[in-house]
Design brief:
single chain; alpha+beta; six-stranded antiparallel beta sheet; 33% helix
Length: 874
């Protein structure tokens, strides 16, 4: 049984308010919003019928005159239209299955043949699929649970699927259609709430009971991944922070078909009802009586006259104080600031914050990284580069960056002129905004188009079949789930990277640089004369020990003296008991460039962590940040010492971040504020039945769930953890957020990594919860078919399987990347295919054993590094 349950947490803050509207007292037990008394309408009166455009016998009604904003105010309850109470004020399209609605075209181009304007076909198909899924799911629930509700128009009625003669008319049609999806989200939430209610009412009647609504949709052909996405979306989130239109009720006696006040409160739908002598004298309504102190205040402080309609405010925000004349003047000045000026303030602030970041990247980059950056600068990529669109900040006066999903990167870039885009070769990112420059590639015609072109006849479009066409409800199977953002990664100079192919000399320098920084290797003087390595298997083995995935250019390296001496060193390091000359290992005090001579070595402080020793760099007065750089191994502590002498903490942290090396940004709790409260994201592993065969839809849903989780600043911790967690987080979290330090103190202990220093001070950093870790690694709870027995499968190995295994190099290598690329045979294809199924824990354990030589070599390196620090570091 695939059962799902709604979990409601107890709210500690209660919002309630009395208002006097048109001389009548109304009470809300769950809202402080200022509202108007709705007009009384007949249940047969359809609120979705637009007013006539003309008078006379041939009166027509224009659909384009319908406005979603007209349904955001509460209405009197009626059976056919009561569902409007669930309509969300601020629909969240960042989470699947609604994320295709985020892609709202800024402009469209005429068709080369017809000359007409239409929405991009790929995006129109996504919207159409979502529309069909919503109409099908709501229809099935209405019929199965006998939910009386009259359905609204389809979004396509506004014309997003049609061609138009004028661009402005086409854009208006797209905008109206997009807004109308929120109406269907309200209906979907209502049908789910009613379905749950019917399930509970009939639970004790075996011949009448119904299974869970999600189980029923699953039986009717809904995709499991689609259902999980719905459950993790705002449609199924009945909480105070989801502001809904609400409803006015007449308190009725037992037996009424109208849902009770408590029912609406349970689903956090704002509710208002009249309270006067008639209600106060009815014993059935005692539980709905306002608290005495609120009722007393209302009779003395609330004017008995209609209140003007105020802008909607969240139920969780108390009423503001009186507005002063100074506030009015300030608002007037602010309103006169142009959109471009507002954008430029945000843009300049962004550039100022990015300038030092680019400088750090330039300082830290190797010769091959520099060549790759210059190559990108000459020919900026449009597929592998992340694309960001600057949009108005709904919570402020400025603009914010909004990342575009990979599938729409090229289309988004095509919507802007060359003056309106900027490319950053350091981070391989595009920024797009119409305020960056003139739209020199667009038509100069800004007219709205003729009125008759913008007319959509309601009577012709309001034709809904008795039942939507039966089809499988699921996530878009044409989504490209592969956020393959690996091109910019330091190690990715593989032969398949057409944009850049380094020379053999460049490869040699890169391999030697890696060996020095990570292993402390120093080429001996003079170089030993060693025979060339011609056996390909041994060549591959040596490159794997260094963490490199095999490439066609590598065989040429194994006749070069410096590489042959490095191979000799690697062989000795991975062979137990073999002596390594002090001339070729900087961990030895006798080496000519011993790491103990490096300036940072004296700042290493070993501290006790929850799972073993940590190594904090205490730069004292030389520190440039509030947090203290702390690495998880002695090997990495010495690596930090080897980096460029001019690097400060942020430069070092950026170097570690770009290579997936785990570390912490520990900060004294006395210098941290409480972290802001954020909406808790879904953190349950998906359940799969016995014998389930995973598809690309499962993998797409997994990536989408990761993106939703990574919207929390605290999950910067995933980038700090390194390994597979770091790799998953790359597409969704910015490095500059990590460099800002911990997000704040949390009331939950499992959301903070904490250490206590000998001086009694406590230092903390952000931490992933166990549930978040499981989700980011793509873990599923799978039934085995043997009773209640369960098994775990995942797209990536667990932390315990990967840590200190033969695949854990202490950094992310090109060899790790080759194993990670599991989802698609062609990352750029619009129809990628899944290469393999997620694996159970025991299979991952076998895979992670990797090379014993790697494990032995890294173990020896850590042991010697730890001994050196404990003996010689201050």
């Amino acid at each position: 049984m695939y059962s799902l349950a709604l979990i409601c947490e107890t709210q500690l803050i209660i919002f309630r308010r009395i208002q006097v509207l048109n001389g009548r007292v109304y009470y809300s037990p769950n809202s402080i919003r200022t509202v108007e008394e709705p007009s009384v309408s007949m249940p047969t009166e359809n609120p979705f019928v637009p007013p006539p455009s003309t008078t006379g016998p041939d009166t027509k009604r224009n659909l384009m005159r319908l406005d979603v904003a007209d349904y955001l105010n509460p209405r009197w309850w009626s059976q056919p239209w009561g569902w409007i109470a669930f309509l969300p004020h601020e629909p969240d399209y960042h989470t699947p299955p609604f994320n295709s609605l985020l892609q709202n075209p800024r402009r469209i181009f005429p068709h080369p043949n017809s000359g007409k304007y239409a929405m991009p076909s790929g995006l129109a198909d996504c919207w159409s699929k979502l529309e069909l899924d919503l109409t099908m799911a709501t229809y099935l629930l209405q019929v199965h649970y006998d939910i009386p509700a009259i359905r609204p128009l389809y979004p396509m009625a506004f014309g997003y699927k049609r061609s138009h003669s004028h661009e402005s008319v086409a854009m208006r049609s797209i905008r109206k259609s997009r807004e109308w999806f929120s109406v269907w989200l309200g209906l979907f939430s209502y049908t789910i709430a009613m379905a749950e209610t019917k399930e509970n009412e009939l639970h004790d009647y075996a011949h009448l009971s119904k299974k869970g609504w999600a189980d029923y949709l699953l039986e009717q052909g809904a995709e499991r991944t689609w259902l999980e996405s719905v459950i993790n979306s705002m449609v199924f989130r009945f909480e105070p922070d989801v502001i809904r239109s609400g409803v006015f009720l007449h308190l009725l006696g037992p037996g009424s078909l109208q849902p009770s006040v408590n029912w609406f409160c349970t689903y956090h739908v704002p509710v208002w009802y009249p309270w006067g002598p008639e209600q106060a004298s009815n014993p059935h309504f005692l539980e709905y009586a306002p608290p005495t102190h609120i009722l007393q205040v209302s009779t003395t402080t609330i004017a008995k006259s209609p209140l003007p309609l105020q802008p909607e405010i969240p139920d969780t925000i108390p009423p503001q104080d009186d507005v002063t004349s100074h506030d009015i003047e300030t608002q007037a000045v602010a309103s006169n600031i142009s959109r471009k000026d507002r954008f430029l303030v945000s843009w300049q602030s962004f550039l100022s914050s990015r300038k030092p970041l680019r400088q750090r990247i330039e300082q830290a980059e190797t010769s091959i990284e520099k060549q790759k950056r210059l190559s990108r600068e000459k020919q900026p990529p449009t597929k592998s580069a992340k694309v960001f669109r600057w949009v108005r900040d709904v919570s402020g006066d400025g603009y914010v960056r909004e990342q575009v999903v990979k599938r729409w990167r090229e289309d988004t870039l095509g919507e802007y002129s060359s003056n309106q885009v900027r490319y950053d070769p350091f981070l391989n990112e595009w920024d797009c905004c119409s305020e960056l420059g003139s739209d020199d590639e667009s038509d100069d015609n800004d007219d709205e188009g003729p009125e008759e072109e913008a007319f959509e006849d309601y009577d012709q479009m309001n034709v809904e079949p008795l039942a939507p066409q039966t089809t499988s409800i699921g996530l878009d199977d044409h989504l490209d789930p592969t956020d393959n953002d690996e091109e910019w990664l330091p190690f990715c100079h593989q032969p398949q990277d057409i944009a850049f192919c380094p020379s053999v000399d460049g490869l040699e320098d890169e391999v030697l640089e890696e060996a020095h920084v990570y292993f402390g290797y120093v080429s001996p003087l003079p170089l030993l004369t060693l025979p060339a390595i011609t056996e390909e298997q041994r060549q591959k083995h040596l490159m794997r020990l260094l963490g490199f995935s095999w490439g066609q250019s590598f065989p040429e390296l194994f006749s070069r003296p410096r590489i042959l001496n490095l191979a000799n060193f690697i062989d000795k390091m991975s062979a137990p008991g073999t002596n390594i000359s002090s001339d070729e290992w900087d961990i030895n005090r006798g080496n000519r460039v011993s790491v103990t001579l490096m300036p940072r070595f004296k700042y290493i402080v070993e501290i006790s962590g929850p799972k073993g020793p940590l190594f904090m760099f205490n730069f004292g007065e030389c520190s440039m940040v509030k947090w203290k750089l702390t690495v998880t191994s002695a090997t990495h502590a010495l690596l930090v010492c080897r980096l460029h002498a001019d690097f400060e903490e942020r430069d070092i942290a950026l170097y570690l971040l770009r290579r997936g090396i785990p570390f912490y940004t520990l900060q004294d709790t006395e210098t941290l504020q409480q972290a802001p409260l954020v909406q808790e994201k879904p953190s349950q592993c998906p359940l799969r039945p016995a014998g389930h065969v995973f598809t690309l839809l499962d993998y797409t849903a997994y990536l989408n769930q990761c993106r939703v989780l990574m919207q929390q600043t605290r999950l910067r911790a995933a980038l700090l953890r390194g390994g597979y967690l770091w790799r998953v987080a790359l597409s969704a979290m910015y490095f500059d957020i990590v460099l800002e330090g911990p997000s704040g103190l949390s009331s939950r202990g499992d959301e903070m990594f904490s250490v206590l220093l000998p001086d009694g001070k406590r230092y903390v950093d952000d931490e992933l919860t166990e549930a978040e870790t499981y989700i980011l690694l793509g873990t599923y709870v799978c039934r085995t078919g043997y009773g209640d027995q369960l098994a775990f499968k995942s797209w990536s190995p667990s932390v315990s399987n990967f840590s200190k295994s033969g695949l854990d190099y202490g950094r992310w290598t090109s060899f790790n990347e080759s194993l990670y690329n599991i989802s698609s045979s062609d990352p750029e294809s619009r129809n990628p295919t899944l290469k393999r199924q997620p694996r159970p824990s025991n299979k991952w354990r076998d895979i992670c054993r990797g090379s014993r030589d790697v494990a032995r070599g890294l173990h020896r390196l850590e042991k010697v590094s730890l001994s050196l620090i404990r003996e010689y570091s201050n």
